[in-house]
Amino acid sequence: MSEQGIKSAPDLSVRIAGLRLRNPVIAASGTFGYGGEYGGLVDVSRLGAICTKGLTLKPRQGNTGIRIWETPAGLLNSIGLENPGIPAFIEQELPRLREMGPAVIANLSGAAVEEYVGGAALLNGSSVDMIELNISCPNVKAGGMAFGLDPEAAAAVVGPVRRACSAKPLMVKLSPNAPDLAAVARSCVKAGADALSLVNTFKAMAIDVKNRKPVFDNVSAGLSGPAVRPIALRMVWELYDALRTPGKAGKPAVPIVGMGGIACAEDALEFLMAGASAVQTGSATFARPAAMLEIIDGIEKYMRSAGIAGVKYLSIR
pTM score, two decimals? Predict the structure, then answer.
């Protein structure tokens, strides 16, 4: 639906599980630190939201060895959730994040249900706007990705976390490595997810030919960047259909936030047209810190030229 010849500026605001964002562009977890790292380079206040670096209940040192490896049209990472722990985040980082302007989405990770629940309880009492539950990180040997591969395992962590953070909207970040992504998604929604984000990185690896050994100490790593975008887009499209509910005019049961190789406005528009309510951008900001601002401007320019009044009208679903 569009309104040809609109005279006022298009409305870029969106709502995700009741949370209003000024625009649909979100800094993806693990790629934007806690916002301040980019503060001297770009106007961070213009973003719709900032998804924090992955947080765990206790501090983590992260993985040893090489952590980043470039590959054609993509990037491999094996960071290992290095972070100061949730108590330190709430005390030291969150106040500065709140001053920046965008909504704050805390990415919650863990290696056991009890760790997830403890972290969720602390975040529930903080000023974060939303929690993104990461059940799909492929860089941690214990837990993490295992929860996101199986519907029952996913529900086993989403349910308790939902109860522990009843005051915050809960978005669950899905793994593209799940054998049946739709089944995992339905299980998460049934267990209490208010929104879903997808996809996280794809499990991959690289070999150091010169030294005849795997590049990463953990052998496998997560692949992101333009190479994964068409696959991620297809997954968003299919999940939209899988979550349709007849009682809601054929819309998905919960909002979907799309990500995976989004580097320009056209990329973002593809995901929004496929049914995503918002998008996250990550790897692109490493090469072009202003990438997300360019995407925001590009979306607005497209909407103006096409006479589209609001982001929700971009969907072709």
Answer: 0.94
